[in-house]
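Discussion board: Methods & Data

I've been asked by a reviewer to show the raw model output for two of the constructs in my manuscript, not just the figures. I'm not sure how much to include, so I'm pasting the format here to get opinions. Each protein appears as its amino acid sequence followed by a line of discrete structure tokens. Is this the kind of thing reviewers expect to see in a supplement, or should I convert it first? Here is construct A:
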Amino acid sequence: MPLDQPKEGTKKRRVIQILDSPDGKKSTKMKKASYLHLETIQQFSHNVLAYSDTYIWKCAEASVSRLDAYILLTGGELSDDVIDAFVIRLCNKIETTDSYDRKIHVTRPWLAQAFLEGNLEMVAKQMKENVSQQKFLECERIQIPIVSSGHWHLVELVREEKKFYHYSSINSPIYTVDAVKFRNKFMSFIESNWGLGKLEHHGLVSVAVSQQGRTLVCGIFMIEFINSIVEKRSITISKGYCAKYRAKFCAALLYARDAPFL
């Protein structure tokens, strides 16, 4: 699934509220209410979002149309711009609020794509924009979304541990090989271009996480992997909860025009 090029524009979203209990716990009443609310959103989406190319969220780097949001909500395959939009918004929140640790960094999807394709010019451009030498030295954890063979997965570099952690909602050697390939090229670039000398070997560890089943939800899983790691909580998503997360992520795109991610 090739990534489309980013589009130009400005941010624009609509307002939808997601029902959650104040303490973050689910009661039977709230669980029932959340399903009722999901039905309300889906009815809204059919009338307002479907079959429309009007943008609900735009910035200089990415744009999300009403149709993208409709597909996100109703179970389709996420567009590349939807993934990119969540990464952009999360990075903005990390850098402009005290909500998260500033020593955590999330890269744009184009970075891993450039390395896996072997496009040296694009690699240099994406490293400059996503992981400068200063950013690399300042951050303790760097998360890199990867799309390969039509599947979204995640690699996280934990610098102090000298390890890369691999998160994938489908256990397959194909995606592990791509993660290893990215790690090798990424570390080779740093050694060759930044004058840091020979770097110690960084192993790659596959993390046991919930698997997605036969549905188009790898993007949903990956977004929640990122959220869970950044928020320092356990990863609890499972294939049975994907409708809930789709509604949550759709609301995040539609909610409060100038609000940060979630």
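Construct B, same format:
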Amino acid sequence: MAGERILVVDDSAQMRDFLANVVLLGDDYVVDTAEDGAEGLAVALANPPDLIITDQAMPQLSGLEMVEELRQAGHDIPAILITAEGSENIAVRALRAGVMDYFVKPFDATELQEAIQRILRAARVGNVRTGVPDQRRLEALNTLIAIGKSVTSLLDLEMILSRVTEAAVYLAGAEEGTLMLVDSETGELYVRAAKNLEEGLRSMRLPVRDSLAGRVVKTGQPLFIGGEGMQKIKTQYLVRSLLYVPLKVRDRVIGVLGVHNRLVDRPLSQEAVGIISALADYAAIAIVNARLFAQSEAERTKLSRILHQIQDAVLLVDYEGRIVLCNPVAQKFLDRAGDENPVGHWISDMTDNVSLLDLLDWSTGEPPKQGEVRLGDERIFNAQVSEVQGVGWAVVMQDITHLKELSRIKSELLTMASHDLRSPLTAILTYIELISRVGELNERQAQFARQVKQSVQSITELIDDLLRLNQIEAGLGHRQERVSLPQIARHAIEAFQGQAEVKGIRLRLEAEGEVPPVFGDPVRLRHMYANLVENAIKYTPQGGEVRVAVTEEGGEVISRVSDTGIGISPEDQPHIFNQFYRASGVTGKYRGIGLGLSIVKSIVDRHGGRIWVESQPGQGTTFTIVLPAATMNEDEIQSEVGRYRRS
């Protein structure tokens, strides 16, 4: 209601400002403030407010002492106490002092706003406390405390709502009580809990549009009727007096808590509005908690079913190394757990699996992101490690035994094919060389011989590329040492200088400032540059330029290989690193089988780097490679070695 006066008493200017300009803003309240209990007492005596919001611990006069002196002076003003500590003793003393509610710091501003509205609403119905004896109020407080404990400690919603309804009947001195909720599907009110209600009435449903309880749902305000004759709740269900208060979740009414006198001609007290409203608040909290718990249980059950049915191993370990979650597949790795539930135990106590323990090694600050874990002598799992913020590390392990076997077979086939193909290819090249020695060839015969020789060389290059790609993907022969990329790039450029000069292409290297080394395999890094430079020369027309630039930016070494060639269309760019992919428009014009860039990408990945392409047709192409600089100490280097090998 507009114009209600509220006095804010707090020795903290920041808290006074927060209460006056945030909590109380927008409801047309008249707000007075005081800096301590003594000033608050003077302001309240001079101009009594409708409500006092006061801090407890203040110099000169505490909040409770101020309210007590106001009562002694004949001013029974509703008050809300804000305190830094909460206990039943403080609650009892606060109620005896005339305090309607109290909040422990830190508190929820929305809950405080709801308490303010509830107390002022009750005050509008009638004087909240006049004539209520301390003993009766103490009983009410003890009941509210018991209900509050039930809300936070019990998960049985049926029991909590029954207790709330019984408490409402007892505290209001009523004959019977009901707690009704709004059916979300029909919009009707139905009885969820009742006290002393006839069995036949427990199944009643009330329309919201034309019932007394429905009026409370629509207005969101308490309804008090007494001494006005018989009131119809439902056909053939009449009462002499009633009190209904809304159950609210935020600003939405979800139900009604009501008490009635049906037989006894004794009106209910208006002073019960505040207490019944508090009980309704507890009921609303219990309903919300129950719904949240039900949702949580449903999600937990769903997650549990998924974890038990998937074929991947899922393991969750906290930051200290204790097992938080483990599905049946993952439990096979915990060879020391036996039939015992491993949850809550240290991972190191549950398994002797060295590859799994190495993966979860915190000695370098955090575990590697991925690796391989062996189960026994036969099965191999690819493990991905990711952080679950605030919980720990999740390990998802996928059985790749079959893929490993296929990879082994592929490698053997490639090796055998390479061996079996190289012998006849060598023989063909030898005979091509010998043909010219046994007799002079005419121009047409010489051209045929050159074409055969080029074809054999292309097949040989294909075999070499396939073997090289297979070795890179398998991690075979991968050396680890500090490497200077400018030096490696210079060697690659020198190797292609003659080829560039034939086409009149300018080939240059730019290395700005001190470029730190990277940690990797010098041979494969040379292949990386060689493939990119060779491609650039191949697709750059006569008189063009190919540039290799190496710089350091933010702890990373950046290499850019740029040309002024034919460019790559936007449609081809997403696929350019795929094996055997060749851009449109180059097939038939330029030699190649589409493995060069795939090899480059594999080398970059093996070194923990990134690569991307930027190009416009007819305007040239730039390949950018980012590799981590080798700026760590020796222990960190060894850790990186392990990470690269596992990846």
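Answer (T.O., handling editor elsewhere):
This is acceptable in a supplement if you add a one-line summary per construct. For B, something like: DSSP finds 19 helices and 23 strands in the chain.
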